[in-house]
Amino acid sequence: MIPGLFSCHEHITLDSVAEHVPDAEVGVVFALRAVKECSRFLQNGVTTVRDAGSRGAANIQIKKGLQEGLFSVPDLVVPGHRISRTGFTKWRVCLEADGPENLRKAVRQERKRGAEFIKLMVSDVLSGQGTPYDPQYSFDEIRAAVEEAHELGLKIGVHAYGGEGATRAIRAGVDSIEHGASLSDEDIEMMAENGTFYVMTYKAVFDAAADLKTPPRLRETAESMIERYHDTLCKVRKAGVRVAAGGDSHGFDPSMEATAMLRSGFTHAEALAALTVNGAALCGMPDKGVVREGFIADLVALDGDPLEDIHALGKVRGVAKKGQIIRPCEGSPEC
Ligand SMILES: [Zn+2]
Q: Can you tell me the distance from the alpha carbon of 204 to that of 14, in angstroms, rounded to the nearest whole number?
């Protein structure tokens, strides 16, 4: 029995990986995708999902709708839009804002809409024109967004594979680096000092490298990123930075994220913490992520002990959410 798992970087509307949808159809299509995604997460033992941004801030409306209780779904933490500079590679799924003043306004707007944290794009994506490490915002712009988010009591997480964008963001005081495949020793030192979280999304990069349909240049970038990921993970662990993990719309696979951690020197217990209690800390849920009296009873029964065999994380036998059985254990009288 382990605590319910946390996926700390998802896009429940699948807006950047699935087919583009015309504006008029977004509401229904996104909602249906989200219900399917969220139901699947819960069946697989993921009882909390932190979304990392959706077009039109649909995640906020979807969360409100799901709170009516029509479906069994994980608890959701939602940031509204991804905020990006004008003309960012994936601007179609972002809210564009430039300059410190506009960034402050964008943060306030997201807060007004109901965002529970702020998401900012500070490096390019894998499929950009240059490299995924190309910076997207100046230090002053990031700093303004951080100040405003913190002023409003919100955390701010940034999309950053590495490079100058990540460095500026860490220096500006962001709360989490999302992806973070290639961080410098100085970046990691600063993260440890500031208590910045590291949210890995290993499988998303692995899939890009393994998929034969990926264009050759992008595949090469993804392959080299995998090497960098292991190196960065190893240093992040040594520095004592708190690690969490997510699937980034690529089918969250906790045992795969954990295996990448083990390959980078993590113990089984550390990998399990990244998928549970660290996620709870990042999401601001101090009563989740641990199996203990007084904590919320989000529980997963596994076929095996993940502290000995990490692949047990993929062998879910039963799931309970807030003490309610969601997926009963088959043929097992003791649980
Ligand atoms: Zn993402």
A: 13
- Cα of 237 vs centre of ligand 1, distance in Å, is 22
Is the pTM here over 0.90, yes or no? yes
- Cβ contacts of 314 within 8 Å, gap of 6 or more: 253, 254, 255
- List average pLDDT for each run of 10 residues in the chain, which is 335 residues long: 98 90 90 97 98 97 95 97 97 97 98 98 93 97 98 98 98 98 98 98 95 90 95 98 97 97 98 98 97 96 97 97 91 57
* Ligand 1 centre distance from Cα of residue 11 (Å): 6
Which one, of 286, 205, 275, lies nearest residue 243 by Cα? 275
Domain-wise residue ranges, the chain = 2-327
**Do β-strands 5-10 and 117-121 pair in parallel, antiparallel, or remain unpaired?**
unpaired
CA of 38 to the centre of ligand 1 (A): 16
Ligand 1 centroid–CA 248 distance in Å is 5
Out of 1.10.3210.10, 3.20.20.140, 3.30.450.40, 3.40.50.2300, which CATH number does the structure's domain 2-327 have?
Answer: 3.20.20.140
* pLDDT tens-digit series, residues 140-188: 999 999 999 999 999 999 999 999 999 999 999 999 999 999 999 999 9
Distance 14 CA to ligand 1 centre (A): 10
Please tell me the distance from the alpha carbon of residue 277 to that of residue 161, in angstroms, as a whole number: 24
- CA 9 to centroid of ligand 1, rounded, Å: 6
Q: Work out whether the CA dihedral 123, 280, 283, 94 comes out positive or negative.
A: positive
